Amino acid sequence: MCCSRLLFFSCLILILHLFAVTLAQDPYVCSDKGNYTSNSTYRVNLNTVLASMSSNTKISYGFYNSSVGENSDQVNAIALCRGDIGTDECRSCVNASSHDLLQYCPNQKEAIIWYTTCMVRYSNRYIFGVLEANPLYSFYNTRNASDVDGFTQVLRPLLERLNNLAAAGSSTRKFAVGSETAQDYQTIHALLMCTPDLDELDCKSCLEQTTAEVFSCCYGKQGGRYISPSCDLRYEIYNFYDPIAEAPPPSLLPPSSPPTEGKEGNSSRTTIAIVVSAVGSLVLIIIGIFIFYSRVIRKTEEKVKTMHDMSTVESLRFDFGTITMATDNFSDENKLGGGGFGAVYKGMLQNEQEIAVKRLSMDSGQGRDTEFGNEVLLVARLQHRNLVRLLGFCSEGNERLLIYEFVPNASLDRFIFGMVTPMPFSYPMKRIQLDWEMRYKIIEGIARGLVYLHEDSQLRIIHRDLKASNILLDERMNPKISDFGTARLLDQTQGNTRRIIGTYGYMPPEYAMQGNFSTKSDIFSFGVLLLEIVSGQSNSSFPNEQIGECLTSYAWKMWREGTPLNLVDLTMRVNSTVHLIRCIHIGLLCVQENIADRPTAASVVLMLSSQSITLAVPGRPPFLMYSGNGLDKSSECSDKS
Asked: Are the C-beta atoms of 219 and 152 separated by less than 8 Å?
């Protein structure tokens, strides 16, 4: 009997070991997006960047990202070690995996390999801070849990808890491990991690997509590892990571001792009561002192912060003569476009940096000091890849100038609406160049910019004028939200104004009619913008407006009739309609008449990035028409359904 048990446990250990070896086999991907030759500059740069990462002794947290070279020969590389291994083991893993990857992918410009304890990837394209949840590979134990439902009820909340912990990590470490006891006295151990260059939302999104794979492909399995370029998830019914990584902080309370009986016990209780009373009084005094000084400190910090903001803004001031020279005295040849706010000019500073200069018109509502100062103060403190970057400003005499980074592909409306500008800087009809993948990338980027404005920035920003002409596109067609002259900074979730500022057609009715605005106002505008991107049509000049039908009502009618693809731009190349229909669904959720039913920006990003999230049934959008003078309350978009 003893020998039988010994044989059983020996076999069990062997099985677990074999499974661990299976996971430790080195999955890798060699991309077909570009090749190099063995004696090329790219190969030299690749060898340099890989060697620099594995030999870098200054980094002790296991995350390396580096670039070598320029233009088409630039190599961007990332290496990430598991958070529970030591520095020497990490560098050894990076070195070995780098060597193997060069053997497996001898001439591909983009490749990735996953070892058990580290990951190495490189590319000739920009990969830092970019969420890439695909390709997603699954390695799982073929054995099911004895009680699949009970096992899942423990596993799912464990992964959700660790997802939040990992995503909330720092810019050098997004890693979490933990365990929970399941049925049959089994303990589930799990490890989740992201490349720490991702922000919290991207990390959470990547891990949520990976978790969805656990419960779709491999429901009830006793263990598995799920890997992608941006995140890694693994769980087992045995401990596969260093237990120290999971160890909780030691308790601050001393162990309790059993009470004594009789007089000694009464004496002890009396002593304890006196001590507790004294400690309680002391705690109250300390709390009072803390509250007093925290108020003093907060006021001091606010003063320092105000001084810092003023100092920061002042450092962005440009001399008018400098900008005049950069734009060749605001020549027509440098004019990029214009509108009610004024004109925009291309310029070049003496350091050869290209800029875009918004010269605000004297009679523009936005051009006056309040809106001008508002945009300078807000945008100067906002930093996100999906927001246009303010380089500086100029305020001399009657001149009000805003200096931005130059974004070469102009605004989104020039693409999706097929506009041709008569300006010297002409943009031909490029609508046909926007396939669905490109349009989806733009939609997702705008949503991420809104998440930053509404939730993740130092400030709470409501844009109030989100529209196609205020979305700029950089050289990689990444969207950047611009024009913050009408934005509002709020500490609460909503506000009210008597002065309606924005663009009719993108405004929700509660703002256009009553002046009530909130983050859900921006969500409504985003929904309109999403439907415009899908359809290639402007909501303010929709072809059917003559018969009382606007874009949102037409999209609603097509959805109700089960023909949402009738909304889709005929010039757009589409490989799969499933994702496209889902985006139309999300757009309709955003333009619902009931404010509470509209999703948040963070929810929109999750719905866009995860196909496993079930979408609610969209409610009716507000069928309101907008005339050139504002909201026409007597006219409604007809509901033909």
From this structure: yes
